[in-house]
UniProtKB/TrEMBL annotation:
It comes from Acetobacter vaccinii. Pathway: Cell wall biogenesis; peptidoglycan biosynthesis. It is found in: Cell inner membrane; Cell membrane. HAMAP family: MurJ_MviN. InterPro entries: Lipid_II_flippase_MurJ/MviN, MurJ. Keywords: Cell inner membrane, Cell membrane, Cell shape, Cell wall biogenesis/degradation, Membrane, Peptidoglycan synthesis, Transmembrane, Transmembrane helix, Transport. Involved in peptidoglycan biosynthesis. Transports lipid-linked peptidoglycan precursors from the inner to the outer leaflet of the cytoplasmic membrane. NCBIfam families: murJ_mviN. The chain crosses the membrane at residues 89-112, 132-152, 159-180, 186-204, 245-266, 272-290, 311-335, 355-374, 381-400, 406-426, 446-464, 476-498. This is Probable lipid II flippase MurJ. One of its GO terms (biological process) is lipid translocation. GO terms for molecular function: lipid-linked peptidoglycan transporter activity. Pfam families: MurJ.
Length: 514
């Protein structure tokens, strides 16, 4: 299990690094303006359906069923089930894709109403969206095939294939000047081409594993009906999150040109700690909680839940302080090149700070939601999510005029805080969350250490301003990150949150075991 975890984690980390390179190229070649806005809307549309029908709800319903059929009825029956499921998915998604291509102008009137005020941006967005929309068919099918490979314990190709999105995207952007009318068109074609490559690699890997998956004409067998029934709650839950993102996009298109781009690049940085900490906490916590609750070990389940809260806040709070203090240099160093000017980077840094304020809440949602799922309650988080979606829309409408590109990120952060508060209250009322006073005091000391880190880092960056030249700026930013870590570690030791002798002893003991 550890080897598989490290395999998936290694490919994921490499994918994130390549994704950062791809985003840097997008910023350098297209900057923050109407072209970048049009491309980001064109990419967000198929990506929304991918998360709805591919990676999220479908995988959560398909993987357990596939594994169950594999164990009970054998590999051939499991392959038959996967082929039928692939056939159902392809027919549905191709139908959806054809409708999208035909009615794309009407769709963009809904999700990008602000583009109507500038005909060029609207026309470009329609053109680019028609290029990228087939990606949803390809990537959703690829998600199913990857799930099959994971069920067969072929983790490497299932994880490595997703690198193709960034690799093909980088090649398309670099080759855009020679083969396409614009970099935006090149990047859009790169999205669809990457879907072809990913699906091809995964199908080839299945064939090599002697588990070929030619799709079957869809038939609603009892297993397929069960799959669809299990998908529905996850589809609703995933849909709430995607609607929130769509609301942010709609509001962004109503703001000055470039606002969508500024928020996109800020969100990409915010997603680094959120993706690592939130996904890790949510993925690992659910099976542990389920096991303890099934055994009637409620006190142990509470302890596990509290330990997860401790861990994520211990790691998330310093990330918040670092992003708040170093947002400007982070965005300048990573994206302030080419067409994406330093002024664009500073404006994007304002959005990043607004996102960073809600980072602990975004992560805690992923820690608290498994407490409902482990108890068989899949409805309450959805109900809370729908309420938060409405609140997010209200906050967006209130903040969009006075704060422009900072409004939607701040609205999302405030809505996430309310989401966490509602989940915590509901869990406490049902005796599913019990936070002792000692833990609250410890978290208070962690917060003090974080504040100390932020103040120290602000003073250091003021005393030693960021120099000129890319190499010196990279070295300066790296030094500030290390200095912030030292400030935080010193604060934890001084406030007796961390015992260095005990921590070193535990580390040495673990290393000796290995």
């Amino acid at each position: 299990m550890l080897r598989n975890f490290l395999t998936v984690g290694g490919w994921t980390m490499l994918s994130r690094i390549l994704g950062l390179v791809r985003d840097q190229l997008l910023a350098a070649y297209m900057g923050a303006g109407l072209v970048q806005d049009a491309y980001q809307v064109a990419f967000r549309l198929p990506n929304m359906f991918r998360r709805l029908f591919g990676e999220g709800a479908f995988n959560a319903a398909f993987v357990p069923l596939f594994s169950e059929v594999m164990v009970r009825d054998g590999a051939e029956e499991a392959r038959l089930f996967a082929r039928r499921a692939l056939g159902v998915m392809l027919v549905w998604l191709i139908f959806l894709c054809v409708l999208g291509e035909i009615f794309m102008p009407q769709i963009l009137r809904v999700i990008a109403p602000g583009f109507l005020h500038g005909g060029e941006r609207y026309d470009l967005a329609v053109s680019l969206s028609r290029i990228t929309f087939p990606y949803l068919v390809l990537i959703c099918a690829a998600a199913l095939v990857a799930a099959v490979l994971n069920g067969l314990h072929y983790f490497s190709m299932a994880s490595a294939a997703y690198l193709a999105f960034n690799v093909v995207g980088i090649i398309a952007i670099l080759a855009g000047a020679w083969f396409f009318p614009s970099v935006a068109h090149a990047a859009a074609w790169g999205v669809t081409a990457s879907g072809v490559v990913q699906l091809g690699l995964l199908l080839w890997s299945c064939s090599r594993a002697k588990f070929a998956l030619p799709p079957l004409w869809p038939v609603l067998t009892p297993r397929i009906r069960l799959l669809l029934r299990r998908m529905l709650p996850g589809l609703v839950g995933s849909g709430v999150g995607q609607i929130n993102l769509t609301i942010d996009t709609i509001i962004g298109t109503l703001l000055p040109a470039g606002s969508v781009s500024l928020m996109y690049f800020a969100d990409r940085i915010n997603q680094l700690p959120l993706g690592v900490l939130g996904a890790a906490a949510g993925t690992t916590l659910l099976p542990v909680l389920t096991r303890h609750l099934a055994a009637g070990e409620h006190d142990v389940a509470h302890a596990v839940q509290n330990r997860s809260i401790n861990y994520v806040l211990l790691l998330t709070l310093p990330a918040v302080a670092g992003l708040l203090v170093l947002a400007d240099p982070i965005m300048i160093v990573l994206f302030g090149h080419g067409s994406f000017t330093e002024q664009d980077a500073i404006l994007s840094a304002q959005s990043l700070r607004a996102y960073a304020l809600g980072l602990p809440a975004f992560v805690l949602v992923k820690v608290l939601a498994p407490a409902f799922f482990a108890r068989g309650d899949t409805r309450t988080p959805v109900y809370v999510g729908v309420s938060v979606m409405v609140i997010n829309l209200i906050f967006n409408l209130i903040l969009m005029k006075p704060l422009a590109h900072v409004g939607p990120p701040l609205a999302s952060s405030l809505a996430a805080m309310l989401n966490v508060g509602a989940l915590a209250v509901l869990l406490s009322r049902n005796a599913a969350l019990s936070v002792p006073a000692s833990m609250m005091l410890r978290l208070g000391r962690v917060l003090l250490a974080t504040i100390g880190m932020g103040v120290g880092l602000a003073c250091a960056s003021y005393a030693v301003p960021m120099p000129g030249g890319l190499v010196w700026r990279v070295l300066w930013l790296g030094g500030m990150v290390w200095l912030g870590g030292l400030f935080y570690l010193a604060g934890l030791v001084a406030l007796r949150v961390l015992d260095p002798v005990q921590a070193f002893g535990a580390l040495r003991k673990r290393m000796s075991r290995r």
